[in-house]
Amino acid sequence: MNYALKLNNVTKTYKGSDFSLNKVSFALPSGSVMGFVGENGAGKTTTIGCILRTLFKDSGTIEILGTEMTDDNVEIRENIGVVYDGDNFPGYLSAEQLSNIMSGIFKHWDDTLFQNYIKSFRLSKKQKIKTYSKGMTMKLALAVALSHHPKLLILDEATSGLDPVMRDEILDVLLEFVGDEEHSILLSSHITSDLEKIADYITFIHNGKIILTETKDNLIYNYGILRCKEKQVELIEPEDIIVYRKRDYQTDILVSNMNIAERKYPGVVIDHVTIDEIMLMLVKGNEI
Ligand SMILES: Nc1ncnc2c1ncn2[C@@H]1O[C@H](COP(=O)(O)OP(=O)(O)OP(=O)(O)O)[C@@H](O)[C@H]1O
Questions:
Q1: Ligand 1 centre and the CA of 208: distance in Å?
Q2: Does the beta carbon of 19 lie inside 6 Å of ligand 1?
Q3: What span, in angstroms and rounded, lies between the C-alpha atoms of 142 and 41?
Q4: Can you tell me which atom of ligand 1 is nearest the CA of 49?
Q5: pTM (whole model) above 0.80
Q6: Which residues pair with 3 in a beta bridge?
Q7: Is the domain defined by 3-218 classed in CATH 3.40.50.720?
Q8: Average pLDDT for residues 121-132, to the nearest whole number?
Q9: Nearest-CA neighbor of 65 among 108, 27, 106, 15?
Q10: 81 ligand 1 Cβ < 6 A
Q11: Gene3D superfamilies under this entry (predicted)?
């Protein structure tokens, strides 16, 4: 299998902070979308910073499109489109002026494609970027990221703060982008409904550590939560329990195959599980 992105045992510490990335490993197969989720401060932006080399990792390896990136590896940078939450460009420029600047930066800058995105995103070419709304700024950032023909798109909280209609429009553009087998997306987001729509894989990070990386279909269709009454808890075999969480009158148990659990534990209520619930269970639950 070809990977657009492969992290192996990446560690990173900050001076004066207790936080560290703890041997972060995951791999994004080419042609797919990976959602990167974790609570505030879990280490998503730090991981993305290490991938993009805006931060220096302490150890581990990061391969992008099969190669480890170095500071002078311009070709790889050309192949990565990046969208951050927040101000991406100088506000005194217009989209038209920005395109001129970008054509000097990126070898494969495609002004026609950029103009097409500007048109379909209903952005004004002449208006100064500082007068754009948040949603407009985000669409502009996405247009720029896509217009130099990247193979890998990295979005850090890019859809946060956007209304559902605008998010849906952006998700459609992302789906179109990834329709080409050569294109891949890493998307960090707190909006798990967006990830449920477009992600092929979900990677969960907690306290700087990867706690689960799985296909979305497996999470949505096979993972489940057993709602156990007090006496039922004892029936569940430890190897079936990923994590458990005691509630007032029941214990929730996360399992990786609800069909098997259903047959094995008749009488126990089993629910399908959302990405949010899995995350809550992984973060707040206990291991055996
Ligand atoms: N320059 C820095 N110096 C010290 N600590 C830092 C620095 N940058 C980030 N941190 C710490 O690293 C931890 C992880 O932060 P990071 O921004 O990677 O998390 P995140 O998962 O992206 O969070 P959020 O969802 O809130 O954006 C936090 O505890 C943060 O305070």
A1: 9
A2: yes
A3: 24
A4: 18
A5: yes
A6: 29
A7: no
A8: 93
A9: 27
A10: no
A11: P-loop containing nucleotide triphosphate hydrolases
For residue 3 and ligand 1, the question of a CB distance below 6 A is answered with no
- Separation CA 44–CA 51 (nearest Å): 11
**189 CB under 6 A from ligand 1?**
no
Mutate which of 36, 44, 48 for ligand 1 pocket (most atoms within 8 A of beta carbon) = 44
233-254 tens-digit pLDDT? 999 999 999 999 998 889 999 9
pLDDT tens per residue across span 24-45: 999 999 999 999 999 999 999 9
Mean pLDDT for the chain? 93
Per domain, the residue ranges of the chain are 3-218, 223-284
Give the number of other Cβ atoms within 10 Å of residue 231's Cβ.
7
Query: 147, 100, 155, 91: which is closest to 119 by C-alpha?
Result: 147
Token pair belonging to 52: 């993009």
- 273 CB-near residues (< 8 Å, 6+ apart): 219, 220, 223, 224, 225, 254, 281
d(CA 165, CA 33): 21
pLDDT digits (tens, 9 = 90+) for 144-202: 999 999 999 999 988 887 889 888 989 999 999 999 889 999 999 988 889 999 999 99
